[in-house]
């Protein structure tokens, strides 16, 4: 296993104000997909309020509004897609029913991010294919390679770097802690561990972990210089 640590310091902006509000067409899952695993590892269930988006982190909560009838529903992103040009989200059948477009099949919708979630998949290392980035989506950041010491709190492991970048900015603003990324190479595949804080004692790291457990229940202590 190869380990590399670096800090991502983002002056973070989106030219199209992406990930806040989008408009476009929505579709919904066919019944044949019920029980099939999604890109996050969760199984699709038609009676749950979930959705597929090309780039938003898994766990993101979005409000979808049908512009034809002004009906809205909140869904959790747990899948990738849709892969049809012009469509911005696939929603579960129950979400489509609440939006009132089951008979039409498609709807012109507005999508608003209301909770960025934590971006985690439900399993480590599941490859995500065909992830698309919106055209003209720009980032500015600096990278400093480190050999850190002490302790941090790892909140998750990710494979999609673009989602890691978005989540990092949210975490820096929310917790005012240094964000460190550990790059792990397992079986030739890169994974990114997202670690908050740089504490000189395990006790301080444990205290911070306790504070964030309601939001990140799988968070654990990471010892930077552990062999």
Automatic annotation (TrEMBL):
InterPro entries: RlpA, RlpA-like_DPBB, RlpA-like_sf, RplA, SPOR-like_dom, SPOR-like_sf. One of its GO terms (biological process) is cell wall organization. Its EC number is 4.2.2.-. PROSITE patterns: SPOR. One of its GO terms (molecular function) is peptidoglycan binding. Residues 1-19 form the signal peptide. Gene3D superfamilies: RlpA-like domain, Sporulation related repeat. Belongs to the RlpA family. This is Probable endolytic peptidoglycan transglycosylase RlpA.
């Amino acid at each position: 296993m190869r380990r590399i640590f670096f800090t991502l310091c983002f002056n973070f902006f989106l030219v199209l104000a992406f990930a806040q509000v989008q408009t476009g067409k929505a579709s919904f899952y066919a019944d044949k997909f019920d029980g099939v695993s999604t890109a996050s590892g969760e199984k699709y269930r038609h009676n749950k309020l979930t959705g597929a988006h090309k780039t938003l982190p898994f766990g993101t909560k979005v409000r979808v509004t049908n512009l034809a009838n002004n009906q809205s529903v909140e869904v959790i992103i747990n899948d990738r897609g849709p892969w049809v040009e012009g469509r911005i989200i696939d929603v579960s059948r129950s979400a489509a029913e609440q939006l009132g477009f089951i008979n039409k099949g498609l709807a012109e919708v507005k999508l608003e991010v209301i909770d960025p979630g934590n971006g985690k998949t439900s399993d480590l290392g599941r490859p995500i294919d065909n992830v698309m980035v919106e055209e003209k989506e720009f980032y500015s950041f600096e990278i400093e390679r480190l050999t850190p010491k002490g302790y941090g709190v790892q909140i998750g492991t990710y494979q999609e770097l673009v989602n890691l970048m978005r989540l990092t900015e949210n975490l820096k603003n929310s917790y005012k802690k240094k964000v460190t990324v550990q790059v792990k190479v397992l079986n030739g595949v890169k994974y990114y561990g997202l670690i908050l804080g740089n504490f000189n004692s395990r006790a301080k790291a444990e205290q911070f972990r306790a504070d964030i457990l309601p939001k990140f229940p799988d968070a654990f202590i990471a010892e930077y210089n552990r062999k």
